[in-house]
Each structure stands twice: as C-alpha cells, then as structure tokens.
Amino acid sequence: MLHKLIIIGSGPAGLSAAIYAARADLSPIVISGHTPGGQLTQTSAVENYPGFPSIQGTELMQKIREHAAQFGTKFIDASVTKVDFKTKPFKIWVGEEVLEAQAVIVATGATAKWLGLVNEQRLQGQGVSACATCDGFFFKNKAVVVVGGGDTAMEDATFLTKFASQVTIVHRKPEFSASKIMQERALKNSKIKVKYNSEVVDVLGQDKLEALKIKNNQTGETENFACQGLFVAIGHKPSTDIFVNQLELDHGYIKVHDITRTSVEGVFAAGDAQDPRYRQAVTSAGSGVMALIDTEKYLESLE
Fold first, then answer.
1. What does DSSP assign to residue 271?
2. In 10 A of CB 119, how many CB atoms?
3. Of 25, 77, 84, 135, which is the active-site residue?
4. Closest Cα partner for 128 from 233, 24, 9, 36?
5. What's the predicted TM-score (pTM) here?
6. Is it true that the peptide bond before 89 is cis, omega within 30 degrees of 0?
7. CB neighbours of 49 closer than 8 A, spacing ≥ 6?
8. Can you give the pLDDT at residue 42?
9. Residue 123 pLDDT grade (very low, low, confident, very high; cuts 50, 70, 90)
10. Cβ neighbours of residue 79 closer than 8 Å, sequence gap 6 or more
11. Which candidate in 84, 131, 250, 272 is catalytic?
12. Which of 88, 90, 126, 248 could cysteine-pair with 255, CB 3.0–4.6 Å?
C-alpha cells in the first residue's frame, strides 16, 4: 500500500506534523522510534510548554499523541531500520516490513551526550540534566555544576547564574575550547568558578543529587563536591545514522534548505534532527508544523 505521508519520529515535531496532516486528510503514519515521545519522556516536570504551567514530560507527550490519534493518525511503535530515498516512491523498512510513501517527514530528534555513569542515568530528572534552558528554573539559590568546555557549556553556565547561587564549570582539560568571547563572558561572572583538569567520576545521592565525586586527572586526587544540580554540556548527537548516504548531513544534522526541505525532493525534516541550535520542545513542534505545510504543498504539486 502506498501511503501519502510517513512521519519518522514521535517527539513534539513528529506529532505536531501528524496533527496537522491528519486534519488535512493525509492519513499520516507515524513510526514512533526506539523512544516514543522523544526526549521529553526522559524529563520530569515541564514548565515551559505553552498551555501547561507544569506537567510531567511523559504525560505531555501522551496528550499530544492522543491529540494526533483523535484525528486519525496511525502509529507503528517500532524503529526504522533502513530507508531508500533515492527512488520514488520512498521506501522505509521497519524490520522486515517495507512501507512506501509519496512524502516523508524526518523528525528523529537528537540525544544528549552523557558521561556514561550509572548513577548519572539513575538520577536524571532528580538533579541531573542536559538542558539548562529547560531545567535551570528548578535550581533557584542552589549550587550547580556544568560539565564541558565548549560554547554550550559557557552559555549554560552563564544562563544558570540567573537562578543558581553558585555555578562551577568542570572541564577535563587545562583550557576551554569555547570561543574567546563566550569564555570571557562566563569567566567575568562572579558566580562562576572553574575546575580545570577535572572529571566527574560519580554522581552521589539516594533519591536526588547531593554531591559529585570529582577527580583531578593530573594529581589523581578526588573530592566529594556538594551540589544540587549537574548539567552535562558535552554536546548532542542527532539520531540520523540511517540517513547517511540518503540525505545531505552537516555534522550529523540533516541539512535543510528553505526551512524544512532536505536534499531530496519530497523528504522534509523537522525538530532536533535538523536543529543544532534551539533544541526546545516548542520550537520542535513549530518546525513540525512548518514541515507539514511544505509537505502538503509538495503533495498537491503531484496531483
């Protein structure tokens, strides 16, 4: 069966596209991926999504999914294993099953790079975060640590000074890789302190973050550093591996032209898979709608 539209990904971008597509009678199929609902399902309270002063991430994504289903969106709760965008109709593999579509919206998102510590994963949402702009508000008058040395780490540290009583940047090298202007902006802030040549080797706390075990990689000395927040700012990895040699990528992110159009006519991209800058649920949702409007115009051109 040839489908008009298949949406790969079920975060805010994919589901927002699905809502608009279903209302436009495009009978969209959403392939949910290995994390149905996207990164928001791995956060606790969300307080910056319009219309919801405070809501759990999983609950918010469930409501958006129900909204899409209400208008007739069909879901396949599995992951795409392969695509063929070189010929039309486009082919998408889900295991052994092959689906065909006239148009595709890619909204596979991105995942934060973590330190790889067991307790770091256990305490995500309980003091451990990878999104300062999402969660900074919860750390008013608290001591927090930012791990990283690039522009994102500098930006996150500076942003967190609006809320935290103290921000400590922990970096494994003797100097930052961030641009000079970003470094200067962070280092001149009296709330920001720095631990160079240092690494977080454990996250301490039973039900919430209480301290970090930090090791100086020059002397080998360790300390238990008391804090209530850990923000990991060592980068993100877009979930685009299956699109290598199928779509034009830029450092792993899908390269878009004219806002949502990819290098393949009829394939559009939305959300964090093509956005290395904003990475917010609401901007992802908006880009999903833009991708759908462009997709709808493309499908009309085929008639």
1. G
2. 16
3. 135
4. 233
5. 0.79
6. yes
7. 55, 60, 281, 282
8. 67
9. very high
10. 31, 33, 34, 94
11. 131
12. 248
On whether the CB atoms of residues 68 and 158 are closer than 8 A, the answer is no
The candidate with the shortest Cα–Cα distance to 225, out of 209, 236, 240, 239, is: 209
Residue in 107, 79, 92 with CA at minimum distance from that of residue 10: 107
Residue 94 bridge partners (DSSP): 97
Q: What is the DSSP string of 97-148?
A: EEEEEEEEEE---EEE-----HHHHHTBTTTEES-HHHHGGGGTT-EEEEE-
What domains does the chain contain, in order, with CATH numbers? 2-111+236-302 (3.50.50.60), 114-232 (3.50.50.60)
> Which tens digit of pLDDT belongs to each residue from 87-117?
999 999 999 999 999 999 999 999 889 999 9
Q: Which of 25, 77, 84, 134 is catalytic?
A: 134
Active site residue 227: no
Q: Is residue 135 annotated as part of the catalytic site, yes or no?
A: yes
How far is Cα 61 from Cα 78, in angstroms, rounded to an integer?
17
Does residue 131 have an active-site annotation? yes
